[in-house]
TrEMBL record:
<dbReference type="GO" id="GO:0015990">
    <property type="term" value="P:electron transport coupled proton transport"/>
</dbReference>
<dbReference type="GO" id="GO:0022904">
    <property type="term" value="P:respiratory electron transport chain"/>
</dbReference>
<keyword id="KW-1133">Transmembrane helix</keyword>
<comment type="similarity">
    <text>Belongs to the heme-copper respiratory oxidase family.</text>
</comment>
<dbReference type="InterPro" id="IPR000883">
    <property type="entry name" value="Cyt_C_Oxase_1"/>
</dbReference>
<feature type="transmembrane region" description="Helical">
    <location>
        <begin position="90"/>
        <end position="115"/>
    </location>
</feature>
<feature type="transmembrane region" description="Helical">
    <location>
        <begin position="136"/>
        <end position="155"/>
    </location>
</feature>
<feature type="transmembrane region" description="Helical">
    <location>
        <begin position="505"/>
        <end position="528"/>
    </location>
</feature>
<feature type="transmembrane region" description="Helical">
    <location>
        <begin position="459"/>
        <end position="485"/>
    </location>
</feature>
<keyword id="KW-0812">Transmembrane</keyword>
<dbReference type="Pfam" id="PF00115">
    <property type="entry name" value="COX1"/>
</dbReference>
<dbReference type="GO" id="GO:0009060">
    <property type="term" value="P:aerobic respiration"/>
</dbReference>
<feature type="transmembrane region" description="Helical">
    <location>
        <begin position="421"/>
        <end position="447"/>
    </location>
</feature>
<feature type="transmembrane region" description="Helical">
    <location>
        <begin position="389"/>
        <end position="409"/>
    </location>
</feature>
<feature type="domain" description="Cytochrome oxidase subunit I profile">
    <location>
        <begin position="24"/>
        <end position="568"/>
    </location>
</feature>
<keyword id="KW-0472">Membrane</keyword>
<feature type="transmembrane region" description="Helical">
    <location>
        <begin position="285"/>
        <end position="306"/>
    </location>
</feature>
Length: 606
């Protein structure tokens, strides 16, 4: 009987998948398939990451050996490094574009763009995203934004160079410095397209999670990855339009003579006609996106970690509902803490104390997540594959980076280390390195799902250990530089004899940075060679419970041949025994979500 019932659905699906022969362009370029869009985001993000990391190496060399001549500068920077000595203008531009690329184009797109696209339909049991066309459009807007950002590097007067936070008046007066001209305009156009891409993606993710869950997949049976992506998408929808409005007002100040962010300004002794605006208004608008952005980057990484840690500990995730509550709390609190970036902007001390309170409050849900990961690992049957190592690495950097956040979140303490390397160390650990570890963990874990092959484990181990030691080697000493008062974004500190003693630390940091950057080549090689020559993957290589591992290894548009799976349990039934003390499925320490509950097993979930 069931065969008769299934047959029409199966036939219908065959039609769905093959009613038009896909050309190369419709399959690989303008694809509506969420799995292909995820790969496009990932590969574009990785290529942008190479550019971003390359820039950081250039300006780290400048900081370690200031005003020395390097052939690589002359080769890569041309007129910006006469005789191989970097100019201050290009130093600022490199810092600016490095920050922009890493925060927006690598971490936001590499995590949300890649894994929300790949996993949301697969883990909730949907054929695809709610709108395949919007999904494709989201990627291509992102791609065009990347191209425009890279083009801004080749502008005659130089790329944007007012820091990745683009504070006015540097960013609002085209005549202020070279990088305030065409380079800045291209930066703003690129970001506007990027934001449009994020909004299209975000709407798609939210609608898909709410409307397209398969039968039995209630919100409390969703894997934590999906909860993280869902809240991230809502955060993006709330906060990205604010940055867009700031960018549009900035364009009007630059090109149409308005004064939103400009007040009485003198330039080369000449009084400009602007008055009545406020640069602090721009800070409010920027950071209203800028702080949620930290969590837009870190939440997907934490969601990926939840999945990888539970799977490789062979244990149910500890405190599932507390984890959901902490994701929701982080999402809400992240929208009311933006003022802690502005403690030294002349903010009313009472308002400062309010932002201090909300900032310290966000430590609670963050700590819940850290404790829950540690408790999941505790006494687990740990499978130490590269994905698991990067997930554990994330827990480590999330805690060390978070501890310094308590100092920076307190207005009285922050004033002492504001705009020093202490801040650089803090946010690179908690946001940059933690998010990158989440990205790597996700790539190692879901690579078999994306490409049907396994990545090389031994190269993965080399990649992890060198990166882990190197990343701490870069950012741990920076805390001491910051406490000694070394300001960030200075092109050289040789004019201040007070800082002479710190020069050696800068050399150590730079050497660690170069080594860490070089080992990423191992990852890139592993990634691209495994795509073609990796060991063929089985259907469920990690023995995982979630729905994506029930789809065939060969990709089909629509994910499942025949009917969609039905869900009977949560995603974390690992090492689960029934009343007789035996595994629920004989000889198997995991129970996929599609296996019905048996009479003699209790539901751990409740």
């Amino acid at each position: 009987m069931s065969a008769v019932v299934n047959a029409p659905a199966h036939d219908h699906h065959e039609d769905h998948g093959h009613h038009h022969k896909q050309t190369f362009i419709s399959k690989y370029i303008f694809s509506f398939d969420h799995k292909m869009v995820a790969k496009q985001f990932l590969i574009t993000g990785l290529l942008m990451g190479i550019v971003g990391i390359g820039m950081s190496i250039l300006f780290r060399i400048q900081l370690a050996w200031p005003e020395q001549s390097f052939a690589i500068f002359e080769a890569l920077l041309g007129k910006w490094a006469p005789d191989g000595v970097m100019t201050p203008n290009i130093y600022l531009a490199l810092v600016t574009i490095h920050g922009t690329i890493m925060v927006f184009f690598v971490l936001t797109a590499g995590l949300s763009g890649t894994f929300s696209n790949l996993l949301i339909p697969l883990q909730i049991g949907a054929r695809d995203m709610a709108s395949g066309f919007m999904n494709m459009l989201s990627y291509w807007l992102f791609f065009i934004a990347c191209v425009i950002m890279l083009c801004s590097l080749f502008v005659e007067a130089g790329p944007a160079s007012s820091g990745w936070t683009i504070y006015p008046p540097l960013s609002a007066l085209p005549q202020a410095i070279g990088g305030s001209g065409m380079g800045m305009t291209l930066w703003l156009v690129s970001m506007a397209l990027f934001i449009a891409s994020q909004l299209l993606g975000g709407i798609n993710y939210i609608v898909t999670v709410i409307n397209l869950r398969t039968k039995g997949m209630s919100m409390t049976r969703l894997p934590l990855t999906i909860w993280a992506f869902f809240v991230t998408a809502i955060l993006g929808l709330v906060s990205f339009p604010v940055l867009l409005s700031a960018a549009l007002l900035l364009i009007m100040d630059r090109s149409f003579g308005t004064s939103f962010f400009l007040s009485d300004i003198f330039l080369d002794g000449e009084v400009l006609s602007h008055h009545g605006g406020s640069p602090v208004l721009f800070e409010h608008l920027f950071w209203f996106l800028g702080h949620p952005e930290v969590y837009i980057v870190i939440l997907p990484a934490l969601g990926i970690t939840s999945e990888v840690v539970a799977t490789n500990s062979r244990k149910p995730i500890f405190g599932y509902r507390a984890m959901i509550a902490s994701i929701l709390a982080i999402g809400f609190l992240s929208t009311i803490v933006w003022g802690h970036h502005m403690f030294v902007s002349g903010m009313n001390p009472f308002l400062g104390s309010v932002f201090t309170f909300t900032t310290l409050l966000i430590a609670i849900p963050s700590a819940v997540k850290a404790f829950n990961y540690i408790t999941t690992l505790w006494k687990g049957n740990l499978q130490m594959n590269p994905g698991m190592l990067f997930s554990i690495g994330l827990v480590s950097t999330f805690i060390t980076g978070g501890l310094t956040g308590i100092i920076l979140g307190d207005s009285t303490l922050d004033i002492n280390v504001h705009d020093t390397y202490f801040v650089v160390a803090h946010f690179h650990l908690v946001m940059g390195i933690s998010a990158l570890y989440g990205l790597f963990a996700g790539v190692y874990h879901w690579f078999p799902k994306m490409f049907g092959r396994m990545m090389n484990k031994n190269l993965g181990y080399i990649h992890f250990w060198v990166t882990a030691v190197g990343a701490y080697g870069v950012f741990f000493p920076m805390h001491f530089l910051g406490m000694a008062g070394l300001p960030r974004r200075y092109y050289t500190n040789t004019y201040f004899p007070y800082f002479d003693d710190l020069a050696d630390i800068n050399v150590i940091v730079t050497v660690c940075a170069i080594v860490t950057a070089l080992v990423q080549i191992v990852f890139i090689y592993n990634f691209f060679s495994s795509m073609f020559y990796g060991k063929k993957a089985t259907m469920n290589p990690w023995k995982s419970n979630t729905l994506e591992w029930t789809t065939p290894v060969e990709h089909i548009h629509g994910n499942w041949p025949g009917e969609l799976p039905v869900v009977y349990r949560w995603a974390y039934d690992y090492s689960k025994t029934n009343a007789d003390g035996e595994y629920v499925i004989k000889g198997q320490d995991y129970v996929p979500q599609t296996v019905p509950m048996q009479e003699n097993e209790e539901d751990l979930h409740h």
